[in-house]
Amino acid sequence: MGNREERIDFVIPWVDGSDAAWRSEFTKYRQLCGCQANGSAPSDASEERYRDWGTLRYWFRGVERFAPWVGMVHLITWGHLPPWLDTSHPKLHVVRHTDYIPPQYLPTFNSCPIELNMHRIDGLSERFVYFNDDTFLCRPTGPERFFRGGLPCDAARLAVIQGERAGHNILECMRVINRRHDKRKAIRHAAGKWFNRRYTPADILKTLSLMPWSFFPAFKDYHMPQPFLRSMFDKLWNEEDTELDATCRSRFRSTTDLSQWLVRYEQLATGRFAPVSMRDTLLTKLSDNGMDALRAAILSGRYSMICINDDNAIQDPASCRRALTATFDALLPDKSAYEL
Prior knowledge:
By secondary structure, the chain is of the alpha/beta class. Helix content is 36%, strand content 14%.
């Protein structure tokens, strides 16, 4: 549908953690990978990583209502599909892991190979936006929010890696970026994109404070729908095949994995992006006591995009799920054409 070079596609992965066949395979390989050759266990094979909150239908409703201009929606799945999904929708492309991930990397329960091979999806446009299934459009959002002048919209801000599990994967990505790029030359080459009026003064000051570092310490990650150039994936696979191949052979996420953040960082380090304000986004998480505040944020009309992270500390997931469903029903009460 449309010219692949001109249109903008959306890509979203989804897993049904309750599917019996998937769980059987997941359990089998988690046991096999529980102690790897180097004696270490996978860093994240937890149940919570695959918990489904029943919000996928609202993601599709948000796309239809707030981004009707989208070219194609590529839904990545292990093989299962929600029973309500109308797979005959002309803008929907169901993509199974076996359709695009090289067989030597399958089966995988690691989001990194699933993401790092997205450029292999048949028919994927050059310009596309990658959504996690916990990121939602919450108000009308035009294509210019994601791409401007053919470049992905992003905010370049230096940061320091936080001491958390995900920080290990970011560190691995930064190792590759610093091997590939000279920080000072890269920023000087695109100074107007690094110090841009669209950013907050605090973000610009943070970047300035880290300029004395001779290397990229890290980039601020916003955990929002991420616009990508398909050709950037091709470029990195051509030039970093050994590194990417090693990650893709890890069935469960490991601290040594590279992730799709590497592609975003490459876009930033090469100046292949258009500066954008992130004031219209909100990163939050589910919690037993925070559902009222989350509802207010989703319904406020203030945010174009919201990321709602899961939280292992939730004591009453059923109650959180009911509250989340009620909130999205208030925002998007009508079925979309993606639903039967």
